[in-house]
Amino acid sequence: MGRAFVYLILGGGVASGYAALEFVKRGVLHGELCIISDEAVAPYERPALSKGFLLPEAPARLPSFHCCVGSNEERLDPKWYKEHGIELILGTRVKSADVKQKTLVTSAGETISYNILIVATGARALKLEDIGIRVSSAENVCYLRNLDDAEKLVTAMQMSNGGNAVVIGGGYIGMECAASLAINKLNVTMVFPGSHLMARLFTPQIASYYEEYYSSKGVKIIKGTSLTSFKFNSEGKVIAVNLRDGNTLPADMVVVGIGSRPNTSLFEGQLTLEKGGIKVNGHMQSSNISVYAVGDVAAFPVKEYGGVTRRLEHVDCARKAARHAVAAIMNPKKRSDFDYLPFFYSRVFTLSWQFYGNNEGDVVHFGDFLSSAFGAYWIHKGRLVGAFLEGGTKEENEAISKAARLKPAVEDLSELEKQGLGFALSVSRKMVHMPEKPVHACRATAGIIMAMAAFAYWYEKCGK
Q1: For position 169, what pLDDT does the model report?
Q2: What pLDDT sits at residue 375?
Q3: 378 DSSP β-pair partners
Q4: What is the pLDDT, as a whole number, of residue 442?
Q5: For the chain, what are the domain ranges?
Q6: Three-class SS of the chain
Q7: What is residue 136's predicted lDDT score, i.e. its pLDDT?
Q8: pLDDT for the residue numbered 452
Q9: CATH homologous superfamily of domain 128-258?
Q10: 3-state secondary structure string, 56-89?
């Protein structure tokens, strides 16, 4: 017959760990919750894989970065799950799902049933084969999505030992891995087809700063071209990378960061898909009322983007969406729509940036681009909708977050540029000192004003 659970989480990434913690906080009973993951370890903080895990000295290793240390909560090691009566089914692949029957079938043939399913299958790294480049299983071509990938990358770095590393891609994975490789004293070359780094977010001026900084750390950047093929030695190991512009780069190892694809295959034809992911409502509930989706696999209505359905691939969104879904499941009478402020961040070398909101509209840069104390605002239809800051303090980062959330009116872009970070700090401090009025008090005030206006009208009309 197999096993049966009230709540089942499919996937072992960040979202799963934070969902489990929220279930426990809301009183899930022993034996009600199960997590199934194809990874052999309990859920962990994936950002550590491109940062602390790759350090040459005192690198991060499990159990130090199990969920939920990424948000300064308790660490959920395997013992924690056992103590709270949560079943962990690890190293297990699910080969089929039936949302009508509320069952999953594992590769071992076991049928597991549920009342409520949370899909947290995330996304997989886009492989070179997906874009028509055959590389097979070369031991020195690496991706970075899970713990196995990170361990393979570390092995490749150690075997390269000061050699040449080629990074394909100029986004998150490309930038963070290139920094880590350089710290490990490899000769790093980044290759990407775009005109500048992190093209989906950075403006050319912001990107220029990071490109110059990377160059100062010995990283070579080749823009406007792409990988076409590899050269292999007799052992099947990559020894060079051929580019579309005709150049050939020597390579002792290659790291590929060209994007990802949501893991939706189990639910295609069963759940509504949109933007490549599982479409959910503001409660993170899919087209089947018994199935929820969170993290990179979920496409949800983003209030900050006017309610447009989007997938936001970032750890912060995964953590908060997971908690929101569990709150909706455990307390359906007090459900509210997910009101998420898009947030992205990264740390490379000694740099650290944060972005909040929407990068739409006119851009106003501010600060000193020579001293890594700079930022930018995005202004759309007369209001600040997005904010970016490099090297901010805790107070400064909180200020740009509050400004992006509040969307204050901006009348003069040149004046905004002069105020710079001070504008966000001013908005933030006004919010702190703004008295909060109860709803009933606001309604009473409005009623008094309306009554006074009516009295004044009739007093004037009736000749006093």
Answers
A1: 97
A2: 97
A3: 363, 386
A4: 43
A5: 4-122+261-334, 128-258, 350-433
A6: CCCEEEEEEECCCHHHHHHHHHHHHCCCCCCCEEEECCCCCCCECHHHHHCHHHCCCCCCCCCCCECCHHHCCCCCCHHHHHHCCCEEECCCCEEEEECCCCEEEECCCCEEEEEEEEECCCEEECCHHHHCCCCCCCCCEECCCCHHHHHHHHHHHHHHCCCEEEEECCCHHHHHHHHHHHHCCCEEEEEECCCCCCCCCCCHHHHHHHHHHHHHCCCEEEECCCEEEEEECCCCCEEEEEECCCCEEECCEEEECCCEEECCHHHECCECEECCEEECCCCCECCCCCEEECHHHEEEEEHHHCCEEECCCCHHHHHHHHHHHHHHHHCHHHCCCCCCCCEEEEEECCEEEEEEECCCCEEEEEEECCCCEEEEEEEECCEEEEEEEECCCHHHHHHHHHHHHHCCECCCHHHHHHHCHHHHHHHHHHHHHCCCCCHHHHHHHHHHHHHHHHHHHHHHHCCC
A7: 66
A8: 43
A9: FAD/NAD(P)-binding domain (3.50.50.60)
A10: CCCCCCCCCCECCHHHCCCCCCHHHHHHCCCEEE
The fold of the 4-122+261-334 domain, in CATH, is FAD/NAD(P)-binding domain (3.50.50)
Closest CA to 151 of 48, 241, 260, 240: 48
d(CA 383, CA 410): 5
The whole-number pLDDT of residue 317 equals 97
**Domain 350-433 part of CATH 2.40.160.210:** no
Fold match flag (4-122+261-334 vs 128-258):
yes
Q: Which residues of 393-417 are buried (b: 16+ CB within 10 A; e: fewer)?
A: eeebbbbbbbbbbebbebeeeeebe
Q: Is 300 exposed, middle or buried (0-12, 13-18, 19+ CB in 10 A)?
A: buried
Which residues 6+ apart lie within 8 Å of 363 measured at CB?
Answer: 203, 376, 377, 378, 379
Q: Environment class of residue 446 by beta-carbon count within 10 Å: exposed (0-12), middle (13-18) or buried (19+)? A: exposed
| Predicted pLDDT of residue 441 | 38
Tokens of 133: 């480049």
Residue 430: what pLDDT? Answer: 82
For position 370, what pLDDT does the model report? 86
386 forms bridges with which residues in the sheet?
357, 378
Return all residues near 191 (Cβ < 8 A) that are at least 6 apart. Answer: 166, 167, 168, 169, 222, 225, 226, 227, 241, 243, 249
| Regions in the chain scoring below 70 on pLDDT | 1, 136, 432-464
